[in-house]
């Protein structure tokens, strides 16, 4: 694949490196670069430690990236050193930008007026602390602060874009920074890509691997496709990136996938099972009856705005009494078959349909563990029923892998897919 | 702080680099290294692209880390190449571990037997695909797979630990890998630290910042403490790391925190509100009634093993009909005060207590948005009631910030804290 503009991201901050704070900037910038057709090669994370930051800048320069974006380390406190390190990296001196210092001072004044926590008395000392933020490497272009920290675009090889850590500051500043002549030159060689996502359910990753190997043999120009597959909660996500002239190659691949795994492929346009279920539920009223997932399915069905159009409600029937009293499950049924059984799942679904006056119901009952497993019903055994009014209940029992939370998580995903299949098979 | 064992983490995976999947392994391993007193210098992320992975390994070796941990790229698909690259990095050849191949085959067989949703089609081709996973660099130590991918510890300078991407596989395998002689030698120089976590709720981060500034002035030897604070869902987590001889300094800090923020500090031993609530619920029976959170609180209360001892169940009363029919909320009450009001929250809690024959109930009703807000009840308005049988209901209305999912998430956390306070104030 011809790639002629490469970038790297340097994320600084002890709280990010140590995982106290999840980095949201790397992924966000990665998306922007992807949209631009710039190849992101590396993201590197380190503490606010000058030697480490400089080492990462040199590493990325050695990797011949055209653009480096740094995030974080622009605050007024002594441990924020990114600008100083970038200046040293280029061998340039730091110069006080007086006009910028005034802009920062103005921002601070209004901040302090709004924020009682600051003590308006020692404004000069605060301003002094912030003078540091007005010291910039010679010949760099300033990006106006959204908070108090200005950003920088430093021309050179590679071009270095310096942005603050807080996402709400970084994001608007990125859009200005990428428009600067220096940044535009850096990414001039970018290629436009297409990116397509196919989602599959109920297919082992190795089964897909086999199909891809076969496709590699059968389809000329196959390596024009950059394919990544990712297994998540029983779903496989396959993302393919290619240049426009390889579109026909991709079409052939999708054809082979459909031939081999038609029933497992549930989305070719990137839409998720949640999107599909939401569409299929249009004009319907759904109710849930959950035991081991204890509300996770109901919560997932109401993730999106407007879900009140189809979501009636649900019962978390964690105890057998609750199954009996709230869902009207016959206690004899529980005694005969056990609480984790398809007959009980059927009865739970029927109860939910009735109690919520719904036309669609899903029931889940299972053993999430670690306790409660038996020889014939080990931990991970989960029974599902999807009931559409006027149809016979569709039940299925599975044994799901993983620990308690994996099993609960995976159960909600399985339920979403059983619901999707039932709704697509039945007339609206 | 004297540190004599350094580590780096290489996270591979296009889906992680491009932000389609959030990396959970880097932060998790960072925590483990922190506990061990190993200094984590760099986390680097790249695609499953051999040249990039090898460049990152060389970079970390040049930075003289003692241990490199790689995550991901161990799957059967052709785009998983970490082991191959690690072998090249050390200049060693890949050898088929026949006995390991059989173990992987056995795992696959049982996986497929357990999953009717998986099409059982040609097992041999699948086994062939997985042969790749049994190819290991000469002289490396195998860590048994939790999924299908084995891990490796490769002795050398630095020592390289190769672990799979899925957290539920990586985490147990880490604990074995770190015990290997090679890994132990790599981290032999580590310093032992203490790490303490204090959690606060209902305190603005700037308030804590003030207190820390004051403590820095007042407490001698304060900079022996490495403090990182993190605001999450209305809770502040403060993690302090120090060498044993600074224990007295830390004690003084905790004293000042208690003096200033006694009511907000709810945990000094790292335990979470979920742990405290679980303890306080011992011997009780709890039921939930949820509208906008739609089961998220019930799901959270049942996160942990053994929760069936106290969890009776819950109702997701998303529609007004459900509030009336399943929880017996008087429809006149809804008409008079609106579905999002303290009287309705009280009635929902009372209904849940009655329906599930419980002694403890929590109700949540609110406007998660983006629609449904009004002038006097804007999006983010959420009403909570905690009801302990024999006590008057404790109700509270809040206006929570953020988008739909922030508001739902934050609401469950607020409910957990209201529950904690109610249960701690009342005699068991």
Largest interface: A-B, 103 and 101 residues
CATH fold-level name of the largest domain in chain A: Molybdenum Cofactor Biosythetic Enzyme, Chain A
Q: What's the total number of strands of chain A?
A: 17
| Structural class by sheet pairing and helices of chain A | alpha/beta
Mean pLDDT of chain A: 91
Oligomeric status of the shown chains? homodimer
Please, how many helices of chain A? Answer: 16
CATH architecture of the largest domain in chain A: 3-Layer(aba) Sandwich
Can you identify the CATH superfamily of the largest domain in chain A? MoaB/Mog-like domain
Q: What is the percentage of strand-forming residues of chain A?
A: 15-25%
- Molecular shape of chain A: elongated
Helix content of chain A: 40-55%
Provide an overview of this structure.
Chains A, B: It comes from Mycobacterium spongiae. Chains A, B: InterPro entries: CinA (IPR050101), CinA-like_C (IPR036653), CinA_C (IPR008136), Competence-induced_CinA (IPR008135), MoaB/Mog-like_dom_sf (IPR036425), MoaB/Mog_dom (IPR001453). Chains A, B: This is CinA-like protein. Chains A, B: Belongs to the CinA family. Chain A has 428 residues and is an alpha/beta fold. Chain A has 3 domains: 181 residues, 3-Layer(aba) Sandwich (Molybdenum Cofactor Biosythetic Enzyme, Chain A); 78 residues, Alpha-Beta Plaits (2-Layer Sandwich); 152 residues, Maf protein (Alpha-Beta Complex), CATH 3.90.950. Helix content of chain A is 41%, strand content 23%. The first copy, chain A, contains 16 helices and 17 strands. In chain A, the strands form 4 sheets. A 6-stranded mixed sheet of chain A has the order 2-1-3-8-7-6, with helices on both faces. In chain A, strand 6 and strand 7 form a beta hairpin. The longest helix of chain A is centred in the C-terminal third of the chain and has 22 residues. The first copy, chain A, is elongated, with a radius of gyration of 28 Å. Chains A and B meet through helix 1, helix 2, strand 2, helix 3 and helix 9 of A and helix 1, helix 2, strand 2, helix 3 and helix 5 of B.
């Amino acid at each position: 694949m011809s790639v002629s503009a490469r970038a790297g991201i340097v994320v600084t901050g002890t709280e990010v490196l140590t995982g106290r704070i999840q980095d949201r900037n790397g992924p966000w910038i990665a998306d922007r670069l992807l949209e631009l057709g710039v190849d992101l090669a590396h993201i590197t994370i380190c503490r606010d430690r000058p030697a480490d930051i400089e080492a990462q800048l040199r590493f990325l320069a050695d990797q011949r990236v055209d653009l480096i974006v740094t995030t974080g380390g622009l605050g007024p406190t002594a441990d924020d050193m990114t600008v100083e390190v970038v200046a040293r990296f280029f061998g340039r001196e730091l110069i006080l930008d007086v006009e910028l210092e005034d802009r920062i001072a103005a921002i601070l004044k209004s901040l302090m007026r709004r924020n009682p926590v600051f003590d308006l008395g020692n404004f000069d000392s605060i301003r002094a602390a912030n003078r540091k933020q007005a010291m910039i490497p010679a010949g760099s272009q300033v990006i106006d602060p959204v908070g108090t920290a200005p950003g920088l675009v430093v021309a050179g090889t590679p071009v270095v874009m310096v942005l603050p850590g807080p996402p709400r500051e970084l994001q608007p500043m990125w859009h200005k920074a990428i428009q600067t002549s220096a940044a535009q030159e850096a990414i001039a060689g970018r290629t436009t890509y297409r990116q397509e996502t196919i989602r599959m359910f109920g297919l082992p990753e190795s089964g897909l691997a086999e199909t891809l190997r076969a496709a590699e043999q059968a389809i000329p120009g196959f390596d024009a496709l950059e394919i990544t597959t990712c297994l998540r909660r029983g779903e496989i996500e396959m993302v393919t990136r290619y240049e426009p002239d390889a579109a026909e190659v991709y079409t052939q691949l999708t054809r082979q996938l459909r031939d081999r795994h038609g029933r497992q492929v549930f989305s070719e346009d990137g839409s998720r099972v949640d999107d599909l279920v939401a569409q299929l539920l249009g004009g319907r009223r759904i109710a849930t009856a959950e035991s081991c997932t204890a509300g996770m399915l109901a919560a997932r069905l109401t993730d999106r705005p407007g879900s009140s159009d189809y979501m009636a409600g649900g019962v978390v029937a964690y105890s057998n009494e609750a199954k009996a009293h709230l869902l009207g499950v016959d206690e004899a049924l529980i005694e005969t078959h056990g609480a984790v059984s398809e007959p009980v799942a059927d009865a739970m679904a029927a109860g939910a349909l009735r109690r919520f006056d719904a036309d669609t119901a899903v029931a889940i009952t299972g053993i999430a563990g670690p306790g409660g497993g038996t020889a014939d019903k080990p931990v991970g055994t989960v029974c599902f029923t999807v009931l559409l009014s006027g149809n016979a209940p569709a039940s299925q029992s599975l044994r799901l892998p993983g620990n308690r939370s994996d099993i609960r998580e995976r159960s909600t995903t399985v339920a979403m897919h059983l619901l999707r299949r039932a709704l697509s098979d039945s007339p609206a």
